[in-house]
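Appendix B: complex inputs.
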Amino acid sequence: MGDVFSNLGLGFGVVFQLVQWTPAFLGGVSIPIPVNILLCLIGALVGTLVGVLPGIGTIATVAMLLPITFGLPPVGALIMLAGIYYGAQYGGSTTSILVNIPGEAGSVVTALDGFQMAKKGRAGPALAIAAIGSFFAGCVATVLIAVLGAPLTKLALAFGPAEYFSLMVLGLIFAVVLAKGSVLKAIAMIVFGLLLSMVGSDIETGASRMAFNIPELADGLGFATVAMGLFGFAEIIRNLDAGGEQDRQLVQQKVTGLMPTKKDLWDSTPAILRGTVLGSILGILPGGGAVIASFAAYTLEKKVSKHPERFGHGVIEGVAAPESANNAAAQTSFIPLLTLGIPPNAVMALMVGAMTIHGIVPGPQVMQKQPELVWGMIASMWVGNLMLLIINLPLVGIWVRLLRVPYRLMFPSIVVFCAIGIYSVNNAPTDVVLAGVFGLVGYWLIKHDFEPAPLLLGMVLGPLMEENLRRALLISRGDWSVFLTRPLSAVLMAIAAGLLVLAVLPSLRKKRDQVFVESEN
Amino acid sequence: MSDTPSHGPVKSIMPKWVRGPQDFVGGVALIAIALFALWASSDLQGMRGFSFGAGTAPRMFAYLLLGLGVAVMVVGLVTEGVHLAKYHWRGPLFVSLAILSFALMIRPMGLIVTAFSSFLIAALGTPETKWTETIIVAVCLTAFCSLLFPYALGLPLQMLPKFMIR
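Resulting structure:
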């Protein structure tokens, strides 16, 4: 336990670090500035700002804002990115409560009861409870990361290539089971992603693979590029299809009285607790993450409630539970990334991309060699959550005004911003074209009911999987049974196989579909 | 996804024996992608003894995708499914054009001209565009971008067209 505290202490030390700023105009007087806290604040603010815009989800927000962190030192960049992530998440719940347009998939269920509350003039308490629930969940998740971080890192160091490969297979299977819609199509998307990740040069021989002599493809498809295409551009094109304005029923009343009543607090406390626990667990699972956590928490809340019939008509528990759950999950999903180096979902995959740009390879080694980086980020998560609570409630009025900007003006701005963002990653015009192409691919995928998220996950895990598969087979001298004869690996594979069987069993399928149907009625 | 295509009586270009056109076409496209990848990676070295060559993993995933594509296609053939969604041309066309023009112009023309013109091209993507307000917003956005990216964020972006710098 002492370890946990000293680690967290180190982390907070990094976050509250003061940098002496000596501007010329003050004549040599230096002012101490808490740089990392400021970065966290800016990240959370900008993240919320973009996250509030309808049609831009968490993934697109993070992808779009990646370039603004390039000029920073690694610790600062990661802290800011974490801030952007929570900001985006929180911005999403604001739009779903106020406009009934979930900014991101994680807050789809929040819209069910949140928007009903807003219609009754109780938008304020709904937003406040969402923020409080998120904050509480964030606190718990931060402690959880600190507690689980060290032991899991030790476990990770015992992993060989075979175990890593099996773990990733398990993660991908989880992603399939927890994804919406057809299992078959989700698997197809993962494999498509794996295939896309093969473009570029071979890690061992350096041979150029499927790059068609295009120099920009020599290093492979940029992850941020693909993400921006699939989640940014594709989403814009799809929104244009829908004809923009018609479905935006903004709550016209002024948002007054932010404070929840005593009864609200009393009603939502158990919901927040249950949501936090459920979210934390689902977040750690590879392939899980915020989306499934919020759906599951809402369903659970409805099950345990004495008045399930009131759900969907504006009960506060229906806001509190999914919001706590998705924030808890958003945070605990850092655990597999930081300890094992495996991104459990698409946002974490983007984080990997950001870390790689700063020369950090996430995994157990980082935990040991650069503790200030990891613990600084963990501590900043807590600070980030606190910031959201403090800055967002007073700023709700501004977010509402932002939502009134018509889409016809919003979308060209987003297109230009995204284009500049992608271009600035490598200063390569080809990247912009590629993102455009993936925008059209994403549009096609949406039209054919293929989920783009598993594709992205496959794309990130592809190189890691190939590397570990090759190593494992090299060590075993070409014997494929190595994945089943090493005990840890065998257990992981068995769980993966079991899950896959469960997923296609009719009874469980029905239950799974039910969870998702909640959002559509 | 919220706009799953409707079951309505859309006139289908698909023959009657295709019962789920959406999945059928999706599967066919996956097969095409897989075949293309197999062709593209055909020049790469395969297994050498028990060690992987450069082409082993790409081909492995391509065959896997091929199989899954066939499976999705068969599902589309035998089970009753949704019709093909209606495609719109205006949004996709002009958003793509805006992106393309950005890519072509950013090097020779610099950020200011490029951001402005891309904004206007993208705005063509919807019939709701009102030109006066669009131009005003485009000017503001261009000004904002040319302050934000190079100065506030310190990204090395060229502002003015090349011929004006020389």
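The radius of gyration of chain B is 24 Å.
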